[in-house]
Automatic annotation (TrEMBL):
Record-listed E.C. numbers: 2.7.4.16
Gene3D superfamilies in alphabetical order: PurM-like C-terminal domain (3.90.650.10), PurM-like, N-terminal domain (3.30.1330.10)
Binding sites annotated in the UniProt record for substrate: H56, D284, Y340
Residues of the PurM-like N-terminal domain: 30-140
Biological process, per Gene Ontology: thiamine biosynthetic process; thiamine diphosphate biosynthetic process
Binding site for Mg(2+) 5: D221
Protein name per Swiss-Prot or TrEMBL: Thiamine-monophosphate kinase
Listed NCBIfam families: thiL
Keywords: ATP-binding, Kinase, Magnesium, Metal-binding, Nucleotide-binding, Thiamine biosynthesis, Transferase
């Protein structure tokens, strides 16, 4: 007999591996709401993201890997805010009860939940097209969250890890003819799968950026798109010389093409002429983009080194609006391309 809604929740989502206790969680699953105890000196950070089948992941994705990816991409938003993950909720829409899928999916979630000591404290389970929504809850010292709005002209721009690997993984999953080598070696396939399903979310680095980073976010749509969010959010209010009060002074950024960090797999599998654009617009990176005053360069690189996170200086925030790329020959060109956008 098929499981009922409540049997399914009890078996796969209320298990100890997901619904474990931790401080700050005063009440977990089972009531109409969960209760979080927020210490006086800290603020609660909330972030929610949905992953829909065939939009965010292939319909036939391995359920264990998908469980990992769903939680990791949400924890990446907490990392970008500089927060410590505390707990998450899960709203799951399933076309049918597939116990094999549920077993694997819940094990994938539990692997990440355990790794980050971040229990599942509630959710909702419904019938419908496969869709997974996770709300991640984190804590940050009051006033210390890393916002998109703090970048200033002269700040350095850094990114963690390498860009574009998950986009290449999608090329592989979708059989894109631009992929340079096919079939791929086991090692290359494993690398791509890891980039797409198990991104190295930068929670520890994010938590240590208070007082160092002026602004930051995680790269989900592609650096070209996400950096523009920082530029927009950080546009300062300047006194206007006209009659209309204040206007927002836009900021710009210059990225050095040569500095964009690319993995070995990426450079071997992507044609040279496609590399820069794919790395900047492919998306699904879940790396951090961090802005910081040059005075913090040593501290920031030292911290990354200590945490064994690769961190690359890729450009600067500038006064003049627009996103420019400085090419090998020293010439700067305006980048007009954006990253991933739903509905476009
Ligand atoms: N339907 C919505 N209602 C209210 N706020 C939204 C909605 N969709 C997105 N946002 C807000 O818009 C901002 C940008 O969203 P998004 O690009 O999804 O951010 P992220 O890449 O961090 O997930 C976020 O602050 C998010 O909370
Ligand atoms: C099957 C499949 N096709 C295409 C993509 C590429 N893709 C889909 S959504 C997205 C951007 C990130 O998703 P979004 O919902 O915008 O996340 P957010 O920015 O809110 O974190 C990308 C790169 C994918 N991940 N999976
Ligand atoms: Mg979002």
């Amino acid at each position: 007999m098929a499981l009922t809604e409540f049997e399914l929740i009890a078996r796969y989502f209320a298990a100890q591996s997901l619904a474990f206790k931790r401080s700050c969680v005063a009440l977990g699953q089972g009531d109409d709401g969960a209760l979080l105890q927020v210490p006086d000196s800290r603020q609660l950070v909330l972030s929610v993201d949905t992953l829909n089948a065939s939009i965010h992941f292939p319909e036939k994705a391995d359920a264990f890997l998908l469980g990992q990816r769903c939680l990791l991409v949400n924890l990446s938003d907490l990392a970008a805010m500089g927060a410590e993950p505390v707990a998450f909720t899960l709203a799951l829409s399933l076309p049918e009860v597939d116990t094999d899928w549920l077993e694997k999916f819940s094990r994938g979630l539990a692997a990440v939940a355990g790794q980050f000591n971040c229990p599942l404290i509630g959710g909702d389970t419904t019938r419908g097209p496969l869709s997974i929504t996770i709300q991640a809850h984190g804590l940050v010292e009051t006033g210390q969250a890393i916002l998109r709005s703090g970048a200033r002209p002269g700040d350095d721009i850094y990114v963690t890890g390498t860009l574009g690997d998950a986009a290449v993984a999608l090329w592989q999953l979708q059989g894109d003819s631009r992929l340079q080598s096919s079939p791929l070696s086991e090692a290359d396939l494993a690398c791509l799968q890891r980039a797409f399903y198990q991104p190295d979310v930068r929670v520890e680095l994010g938590r240590r950026l208070a007082g160092i980073a002026s602004a930051g976010l995680d790269i989900s749509d592609g650096l070209a798109s996400d950096l523009r969010h920082i530029l927009k959010a950080s546009a300062g209010a300047a006194p206007s010389n006209g009659t209309d009060g204040e206007h927002r002074t836009e900021l710009g950024a210059v990225l050095n093409a040569d500095a964009i960090p690319l993995s070995d797999v990426f450079t071997r599998l992507v044609p040279a002429e496609d590399q820069l654009l794919l790395a900047l617009t492919g998306g699904d990176d879940y790396e951090l983009c961090i802005c910081a005053s040059p005075q913090h360069k040593r501290a920031l690189l030292g911290l990354a080194n200590q945490l064994e996170v690769s961190l690359t200086l890729v450009g600067q925030i500038v006064q003049s609006p627009g996103l420019k790329i400085r090419l090998k020959d020293g010439q700067s060109v305006e980048l007009t391309e954006h990253g991933y956008q739903h509905f476009s």
